[in-house]
Automatic annotation (TrEMBL):
First-listed, main subcellular location of the protein, grouped into a coarse class: membrane
Topology within the bilayer: Multi-pass membrane protein
Name of the protein in question: ABC-2 type transport system permease protein
Domain ABC-2 type transporter transmembrane residue range list: 26-228
GO CC terms of this entry: ATP-binding cassette (ABC) transporter complex
Keyword match Transmembrane helix: yes
Iron listed as a keyword: no
Coiled coil regions in record: none
């Protein structure tokens, strides 16, 4: 007695394609919940940025005037950028863990568009970056040393939030290049070094001319100038060009590496 199996061929033309390239709030909600359950993420998001502001914001000279505020406000804007950049990069780099578990290969079997996947990662990074910015600003309000008009305070926070997209794309890019949990071991020290060199921790005026010329080409320089622009009213054109160029490079790199990725690492 023999059995025969029949197979049905699905016509690709009749296959239903999900709207918006597969974007859906369920996946977005799962991503957010997973990030918020990560203790290391919570430390980076809520504790570390505020602690950095307290460490830098209470030094001598914090009452000196800078633009529409004072030095403490300048430091607050800088620490909000660093905290949100670190948090966004950490969120993006989670793709490294997803690849190690084979989750990326599973997603490639679905109709989910690679661009939509990166967009959802960016939205999660925006939410997490927003929490980091809110945490730093809350510490600044409680401490009471940062002084600037309310509208400037809000403008700095909003502009900084959009600047975090650059580092969300960087995190995704590194996550597809570096295997497993090594991604944050590279991103953490790397972002700290770029922040020192890009004028986030130390104003560029304190550096030698040679170091300043190098700093103008780093990914942190442009976004730092933009994040503090509502306060300082100083925004060189080459700082905007720097920020746009690095954002485009990281997005293109992330999309390229995702399109090439098929392996379980």
């Amino acid at each position: 007695m023999s059995t025969s199996a029949t197979t049905a061929t699905i016509d690709p033309a009749t296959r239903r394609v999900p709207p918006l390239g597969g974007f859906n709030t369920t996946v977005l909600r799962i991503e957010l919940r997973r990030m918020l359950r990560n203790r290391r993420t919570i430390v980076f998001t809520l504790l570390f940025p505020g602690a950095m502001f307290l460490a830098f914001g209470g030094q001598h000279g914090w009452q000196d005037k800078v633009g529409d505020g004072n030095v403490a406000a300048y430091i607050l804007a800088s620490m909000a950028l660093y905290g949100s950049a670190l948090t966004a990069a950490a969120g993006g780099s989670m793709v490294a863990l997803e690849r190690s578990l084979g989750w990326s290969r599973q997603l490639r079997l679905t109709p989910l568009n690679p661009v939509v996947y990166i967009l959802m990662k960016a939205l999660v990074a925006l939410v997490m970056g927003g929490l980091a910015i809110a945490a730093v600003n809350l510490v600044g309000i409680v401490q009471g040393k940062a002084q600037m008009p309310t509208h400037v305070w809000i403008e700095c926070a909003v502009v900084t939030l959009f600047c975090t997209l650059t580092f969300a794309a960087l995190g995704v890019f590194i996550g597809y290049v570096v295997p497993g949990e090594n991604a944050m071991q590279i991103l953490g020290p790397g972002l700290a070094l770029l922040s020192f060199l890009g004028g986030v921790f130390v104003p560029l005026d304190n550096y030698a001319e040679t170091v300043r010329q190098i700093a103008y080409w780093t990914p942190m320089y442009g976004v730092a100038e933009i994040a503090r622009w509502p306060l300082t009213h100083e925004l060189p054109w080459y700082a905007v060009l720097n920020a746009v160029a690095w954002f485009a490079i990281f997005v293109a790199g992330a999309a390229w590496r995702m399109s090439k990725d098929t392996a379980r690492v």
